[in-house]
Amino acid sequence: MKLVFSEALADPSRYVYPYAVWAFPEPTETPADLFAAGFLPSAPDLSRFYLGRQLRVPLAEWRASSENRRVLRKAGNLQCELVPWDRFELTPERRAAWLAFAESRFGSGVMPAARLDRLLAGRVISHVLVFREGRGDGPERGVALLYFEPPRMAYYYYAFYDLADVGSHLGMAMMTQAVVWAQESGLGHLHLGTCYAEKALYKTQFEPMEFFNGYRWSRNRDELRHLLRTQPETHRLESPEYQAFLDGGLAAAAAASPFRVPLSASG
Question: Global pTM?
Fold first, then answer.
């Protein structure tokens, strides 16, 4: 991958000069390579990715907990079917329902029609998981948009469902059923997006769960809670409180980093 650093808001008074890290895939790489390195798509055509605190479930080790099973029981006989995007019928009714969901769940103007259409036209949506009550012709209860690259991974991107169905915790049940499906499909990981607020902790109801902390995948939930509940005065790695989570200190963190940049002597 090629890395580009996009300058973000600086604070010279504290010597903080941040850059967002963008990655551009090389011809020999697939999106799964960039997901594995901690990046998520920032362009629907998968031409550009960004480094972020994302979550993934290592499916070979995952076992359903009592809470996972309780969530599935409350949703009833929920099943899912993988449908290639080019075979999925996006009716005007479905599109309108998705836009209404986005307006209610994400906030006014966050997902306007033009943004949804750009998303649906891109390579980042390769398949849809359709969730039904039972198998076959049972009533549709929701859908999840996926990027699917077997056997390595799938990206559980956006889910749409009836927000009035509050008693069954349908959104959480759909994500849990997706984890079941991904494991049964022999995938290595299911990626679940970012976690930058405590309200996103619902995504961590799977064990084991990994998050990318900037230099490696971590399973330390105390570390994740610390990241969510504190703001560093300067850079995170310079915070003594965060350094307590670094086994072996900064040198070990650097050694664990997957990123290597060969520098040309010619400049």
Answer: 0.93
